[in-house]
Amino acid sequence: MDINYQDILQSLISWAIAHGIKVVVILFIAWLVTRISKVFISRLIRTLIEKSKDSIVQEQRGRTLSNVFCSTLKIVIWIIAILTILPEFGVTPLLF
Question: What is the enclosing helix (H) or strand (E) of 74?
Answer without folding.
Answer: helix 55-85
